[in-house]
Hints:
Blueprint: E1 2-3, H1 6-16, E2 17-18, E3 26-28, H2 29-43, E4 45-46, H3 50-59, E5 64-67, E6 70-74, E7 77-78, H4 81-90
Parallel strand pairs: 1-4
Antiparallel strand pairs: 2-7, 3-6, 5-6
Helix pairs in contact: 2-4
Protein name: DNA primase/nucleoside triphosphatase C-terminal domain-containing protein
Amino acid sequence: MTDGSAPDIRRFLAECTVSDLDEDEATPVADLYGMYIIWSEQQGTDPLAVQAFSAAVREEGIEAERRRSEQVYTGLLPTGAIPIQYILETDKAPGPNSGLDIFPA
C-alpha cells in the first residue's frame, strides 16, 4: 500500500464529486471523509488522517464552512458508486446539508 497524497485527493475529488454547484448544495465534511476512506481502500492506498485530508482538500481550493450544526463543503456533491457504498456500509442517514438526501436511508 502507498500513502495517500495530494494527487490522490485530486483524483478522489475528480472521480467522486461534482463541484461548481449552487452554494445551496453541500456535503458534510465527515461524510466526504468517510467516502474518501472507502475510495482509498478500493485504490489500495492508505487514507490520509482527517486533518491531512482537510488540508489537502483546502489546497484544491475547497473550503469548509459551518452550516447549521456541522462543517460542510458548499458547492460540492458526491457522485458515483462511493456515496451509495458509504451509506450501505455506515447505515448512516445523510445529514441535513448533504446532497445524499436523494438516496433513501
